[in-house]
Design a protein that fits this description.
- The longest helix is centred in the middle third of the chain and has 67 residues.
- The model has no long low-confidence stretch (mean pLDDT 81).
- By secondary structure, the chain is mainly α.
- The chain is rod-shaped.
- The protein has 3 helices and no strands.
Length: 103
């Protein structure tokens, strides 16, 4: 590691100070970023927001449709169970009446 530091120090002594600072400068925060990168980041955020909104809308519509279908199926089962109970109740009622005639 010391050898690498020594070699970069020697190389920096040969180059000019402006090239040295330009080569060693790293992006530390958003102030060092260029306007192009900010536009690209803003476009990415807008795209993600639009995509998220479309997904939320699609899942919301799917949820509404799923709720409607679920209620229809539950209603069909409720009616079917009601019909079965009504038939069994009628059979039991007339069976009870017939049993009373046998007494």
């Amino acid at each position: 590691m010391a050898k690498d530091f020594y070699q970069t120090t020697k190389r920096n002594e040969k180059t000019g100070s402006s090239e040295r600072t330009r080569r060693n400068k790293k992006i530390k925060n958003s102030e060092d970023m260029t306007a192009t990168a900010n536009f690209r980041q803003m476009a990415q955020h807008i795209g993600l927001a639009i995509c998220g909104l479309m997904m939320r809308t699609a899942f919301g519509v799917f949820g509404i449709l799923w709720g409607i279908i679920r209620e229809i199926v539950n209603g069909v089962f409720r009616v079917a169970i009601g019909v079965i109970v009504a038939i069994l109740s009628t059979i039991a009622f007339f069976g009870f009446i017939l049993w009373l005639f046998t007494l």
